[in-house]
Every structure is written in C-alpha cells, then in structure tokens.
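Hi, here's the filled form for the chain we discussed.

Project: internal
Contact: R.S.
Residues: 963
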Amino acid sequence: MENKNTVKKRSTLRKILKWSGLTFLFLLIALITIPFLFQDKIKDLVLAQANKMLKADIAVGDFDLTIIRTFPNMTFTFNDVTITGREEFDGVRLVDIGEFQTRIGFWSIFRTSNIEIYGIEISDAAFDVRILEDGTANYDIVKSTEELAEEYPEELDEQSPFNLKLRYYALNNIDLRYADDQGDMYLDILGLSHSGSGDFTADITDLRTQTAIKELSFAMDNLNYLRKVKLDMLMNMKMTFKDDGYTFELAENEITMNEVKLALDGSYGYFENHQEMHLELLADRTTFKDFLSLVPAFYLTGYESMLANGDFNLNAKISGSLDDSNYPAFNISSNIRNGRIRYPDLPSSIENIRLDFATVFAGGANLDNMTVDLKKFHAAFDGNTIDAELLLRSLISDPRMALKLQSLVDLSKLKNVIPLEEGVSYNGIFASDVQLNGRMSDLDNEDYEAFQAEGKIALSSFNYVSSDLPDGVTVDEMLFEFTPQILLLQYMNGQMGITDFQMKGSIDNYFGYFFRDEPLEGHFDLQSNVFDLNAFIPTFDEDEAVNADVNTEGILVEEYVQIPNNLYFTFTTRIGQLLYEDMDIRNFTGKIVLDADKLDLSSLNMQTLGGEVGLSGYYHTPKRAIPNIAFSYDLRNIDIELLSKHFATVEKMAPVIQHARGNVSSRLHLVSDVLPDFSPVLNTVTGHGKLTSNAVRIENLKFLERLGNFIDVSNLENTTFRNLNIYFEFIDGLLAVKPFDVNIGNIRSTVSGTTSFEQEIDYIIDMQLPKSVIPREIVKLAEQGIAQAKRIPGFEIKTIPDPLDVRLKVLNTVTDPQISSNLRERLMEEVGNVRESVKEAIEEKVKEVIDSAKAVVKEKVEDIKDDLRERRDKLLLEAQERADRVVAEARVLADRTRREANQNADRIISEAGNNPIQRRLAEESARKVRDTGESSARRIESEAQQRANTIMQRAREEAERLE
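And the returned structure, exactly as it came back:
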C-alpha cells in the first residue's frame, strides 16, 4: 500500500499542475482576447493624433492587432493607409501604403499614454513627393506649434501619447516619385527595399542599413544623369546625438550601381545653423568596364560579353560647411587612358579612348570660383574620330565657355563596333567642326566680334531603320551653321516613309539657354508635299486608355506626350496632303507654336471631310498634372458621314450623328482634360457651339420610329430635316441643346434637352399636332362629347383645335428612348371646356323658363301649375339623362386609359427579352405604368360622378323652385 506521504505528494503535484494549467490557459485566453479588446482604442488614438497634427486627409482601411507572434510586444497592422493633400495638392496622394506595421510595448496599451513603439515596417507603398515652382511642397503637412496651440490650447503642454523606442524599421517594395519643379530636379525610384536596425533611443548608436533599388532614374536641368540604374547599398554608421545636432560617422559601407562598386568614407553632421561634411568617394574597385555599365548604350547591348580595358580613375571629395551663404569645397575628377571597347562578335573596336575631366571648388560663398574642365575627350573607331574640349568659368556672374568639337563619322560603321538591336541600321556621314569661345556679357552687350562662334554641323545621306520604323528616316542633307547670335539651319531635306519634308530656320539664344536656362527660341519654315502624321503619333492600348485613372492620385505624366517648358519654337507650315488615321487632308496651312508647356495651333486651315475646316487652340502639359486642351473649329459644308467615321468623340457627344446623312456647317469651342491618346476626359468637357444645315437625312433612328408609332405617322424614322439652326453647350458632363424649330414629318416642332456622355437623354418636344395624326379612338371620344353639347338649342361650340399644341417628353437612352405626352390632358381640357359651357347654357335656359313662368302666372295659375309640374318632371328626366351620359362617357374613357396602360406595360416587358436583370427592371417599370393608368382612370370616373351628382342636385333645386 502507498503511504500517506506518497499520496500527499501526488495531491500537491496535481494541484500545481492544475493551477499551472489554469494559469497557462488564462494567459492564452488573454493573449487571444486582449488584441480584440484594445485594437479599436489604439486605432482611434492613432487617427485622432494624426488628424490633429496633419494638414492633410488620412484614411485607413482594415486593421489588426496581434501578440502571439511577437510576444511580449504587440504588432499593430494598418492596411490601405492614404494621406491625401489639400488646396494646391487637392486629390494628390502623398502616401499610399498597402500595409503599415508597428510593434508596441505590451503593458503600455493599458495606459493609452506613453505608448512605446519599438519597430515600424511599411510594405507595398507609393510616395508622390512634389515641390511647386514657388517652393510649396506637398510633404509640408505637419502643423506648426503655433497652429497646434491655436487649435488645441488645452493640449499644448500635454505629453505625446507615443514614446518612440525604435529598434528597427523596414521598407518593402516602395515606389518613390520626387518632382522638384523649383529646382528642375526629378527622381524616380521603383522597387525600393530598405531596412535599418539600432538603438535609436541611445545618445550613441550603431546603425546598420541595407538598401536595394530595382530602378533608379535621376534628371536635373533637362539632363538625364541616371536612367533605370539598379542599386544595392550596405551602409553602416555610428550616430551621435547631441543637444545642438547629430553626426554620422561612416564605416563598412558599399554602394553598387549596376556594375560600379563604390564606397563612402568620412562623416556628416547636422547642426542648428549649418551642416558639416567630410566625405570621400572610394572607387578603387571600379574598372573601366564597370564605369560603362552606367551608359545605357553599352549596358543594354551585350554588356556581359563586352571587353573593355584601359586605365580608369575616379575621385570625389567634399569637405567643409554648408549654410545659408557658404558651400563646402569639392574636387571631382575622372581619367581614362588607352581605353578600348571590343565586342567579340564584331569586326572592329573603339580605340584610343581618352578622358580627362575635373571640376573643382575651393569652398566658400563665391561659386564663381568653381571650374569645369573637360581637357580632352577622344575616341576613334574604324577610321572615324571624335574629339571634344570644354572649359567653363565664372558660371554665376558672367559665364565663359570655350568649346571645341570635331568629328567625322561614317554612321554605317557603328554596326562594326556596337551591337545594334535587330532590325536597326544607320547610314550617312556626320561631320562637325565647331568652336565657341566667349563670355555671356559679350552677347548681352551685342559685342559679337569679341565672342567667337563659328563652325558647322552637317549630316548627309543619312538613313535610320528600326523595327518601329521599317520604312526608315532619311535626311538627304542638313546643315547647321554657328554664329554668336543664332544657330542657322540652312536646309534640311528628307523623307520618312511616304512623308517628305523640307525645313529651314534658326535657333536663337542658345548660349542663354545653356547657362541661364532662358527660353530657347526657334523659327522654322516647314514644307511638305505629303505628310503622314500617323507615323509621329504614339500608339496606345484602347482598353488602357479607356480605363486610365485620370485624376492626380499618382497618374504618371510620362504616359503623355510632354511639351518642353523652356522652348519657344514657331513652325510655319505648308503641306499639300496631310494623312491622319485614314483621313485625307489637303492644302494644310498655318502656324504651330511650342510655347512654355503648350503646343499652340494658330489659324490652321485645310480641306477635308468633303469641305473646309479651320482650327485653332492648344495642348497644354503643366508640370506633374493632367494635360488639357482648348479647341475651336469652324467646319464649312462637311460631310456628316465622314465626320462620324473619323471622330469617335463627336459620336459620343452627339450619337444621332451616326444616323445622319448630308452636309453641315458648325462652329465649336471646347475645353477639356485629355487622356494619353489625346481623347477628351468627357466629364471635364465645357464649351459651346452651333450647327447649321440646309438638309439632313436621318435614317433608321429608333427614337423617330417610336415617335411615328406614338403619333400615327408612318416611316418617320427615315426623314429629312431642313433649315437646321442649332445652338448647344457642354455643362456638367451633358450636351445641352437649346430650343430650336424644326419640322418633324411636316409637324411643326420645337426641340430642346440634354444628352449625357453615357448616352442618357432628356428632351422636350413641343409639337403642333394635326388632328389627322391623333389616334382616332381618342378623337372620336372627344367629338362625341362635343356632339352631345351641340344638341342644346341655341348653343354654339368650337371643334377640337387643328393643330393641337402637345408636349412630348423623351427620356431613358439613345438606343431605348421612352416617350410620353400630355395629349390626353390636352384633349380633356378641351372636353372639360365643353362641359362647362353646357352647364352654363343649362343654367341660362332654366333661368329663362323660370322668368317665363313668372310672367304667365298671373293669368293662368292652374294652367301654369300643371305646366310647371310637367316642366319639373321633364327637367329632372333630362338632367338624369345628362348625368348618366357623363358617367357613361367617363367610363369609356377610363377603360380606354386602363387598356392603353396595360398595353404599354406589356410592351415594356416584351422588349426586355429573356435577360433576367432587364426583365426585372422592365417588370418594375410596367407596374408603375399600370398603376399610373389605373390612377388616371379612377380620377376620370370620380370626376365624372361628381359632375353627374352636381347636374342632378341643381336640377332638383330648380324643380323645387317650380313647385
């Protein structure tokens, strides 16, 4: 038997296990339930704090809170986080984050203040950073202390509920677009992954970061410095935080750009009034071939097999202070000696490559002391040579340039030294011999003798062919001549496919454009016998164009054809035959002007579409915004069928045009945003216009067919409209047609209304409807009432007006118009007037009878009494007959109304077909039609009964008086 001590030990063990299990179970339940209890509270706290501090709109989609995976910390996850700008950046998404995670101290959530944040991770995000020309930035969204004090004075001294104890951060799959219009600087980063770890709460910490970028592009002052470069970077540094700022000391870092391997050494400090930097770029592991990987022409065409050798050197140092007036010193130089590039599969190589480049600045406030020297660039291949020298001085106050460029290149030899894409070939001779030497002040003072500018750039027998241009581009001869004032294009003659062109002109202010970013002006005369515009217009996928997101929430302006913002070029054009899509345009003349982000069309005239066309307007591409157009045309005697065929936009705006035949003249002024394929964004269209025509034939128009059935006019769907004079305008996404007079099948009418770009219609037609086209049943019923009234002795009444003024409403869609009218109401008005006249006539007759009886009563009292009794009975009998007749006529009219409503309802259901959705909608419409018909029928019966009761009541009153 077990002793008591053994039993006691087992009992104690069971209790320990029991309470341990219960404790574990409690903790497990807590770990599962606590996130659900506190996630809403923390989310509301985060959003409340963000909305207090930001001058932007923040939105959050789903969110989640978990502890099990990251115990003892909690992971709080926001999905679909967006920050959208206001005012100048209304609708622009600065931030669009797919997932935002932060790790929070577990016990701090119970306080809802001093919440400790240990980690942040952002995934699948896009950042759109913009700086306008006036310096306004869309990232400047944090309210100032003064603004916060004014809005939340009671909370100014309160501590933030969040305490940053950051240990790590990570960015995964990030796209960043940076556009600085003020500095003319643009950066595109695609596929960024970056992470960093360290104790950010310590005064001194070691930060370790890793960065990978799939594509990096950088442009400044209209020059592309990096284009889709792949970058990997390992950056380690010691961070020291002090009261007056912080410093970074770099160590163990490596930067790889394509194949170029670099490293940074030194330190950087940020202080209250200045920045201190001492940095050196180390490129001792970079070869000449590695350097060529940054040149797209070499990196994208057989780079792996390319052989490149030569002495290569790259040095860059920057040292000193940067503040409001001073700049640090820098020295950047690169040298290539005995460079050679050879592709094994090609017969020749690029030889004797030499580069000697340096730019130096001693530091300080005067940037005029900066020097730029390209002392030598030389390359030779297969008997061709290129030589260049460049010296720049006094770049700020009075720029001086000394340039020499000499080359003689047989372009057909390029294929011998550089791999070309399949289908690409070059031919022709390029020659240059240019010398420029002088200062900007010489040109400002018009001292052209002191500024040396002479030389030529020539191209002859040039031909370029590619898969995109199988017909090739040919330039028979081109000659540019340099003078101090202008670049003179003496001539350029060539052909592209079936397009021939002859051009001459000049480019002014090229020196001011290069040094001061002043507008570059040009004036050219372009002539062509045949010009195929289709070859110059980029193609777009129709579905992508239709579904394009045309707001400012991240649309890529690169998708659009951009107009340069600092060019002013004027092209005076004379083209014998211009081809656009499948249009044939003749005698095209006018001016085309490039002017500060705008392509301006001035007084263009042409013969096309069977008539004459005058055009003017512009295409405007503001920086980082949706392009827009202003467009005016004057069409004279244009064939409608050709207009509909070649301009789909016109058909969307006026769908009736596809059923029209004939010639029209029209004027239009239109303003709209545009899609990348140049078609207008329909809901932004505003404008007005006029259309006139002597005769337009309409064929197979559904609306006219239904109108003909409605008013009993056959073959109305094929009719001719004459002497049209129509004014219209675009308002709020609608084409609004102002009232105009027209004969519809010899019926005088006035038409007005709107058509939406979704093909919804809302029109009113006021018609002078001849009696002959009114449905016979309705006319017969009205005439019966009039005939009864005419039986009253001495009573005169007019017949139904001929024509009868009737209003029609046309609703629903272009393809399924629904027509209603006030025809019955108008006829009821006419019948109602008859009945009122009959009532007045009866009352007058009764009055005559009474007066006559009173005159005779004195002589023949007994005879009169008998006569009055007889008259009383007759009066009541006639009144009863009239009352019965009114009720009977109303019953017929009511039954007719019910029958027509049921017929219309049945027709609506029948036209819906077997589609269950359309049939369900049709059944609902049919029910409403039946209900309306029943309501009208009951109203007719009720009003008739009331009139019958009134007739009998008045007859009884008159009968009582006769007694």
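Let me know if anything looks off before we file it.
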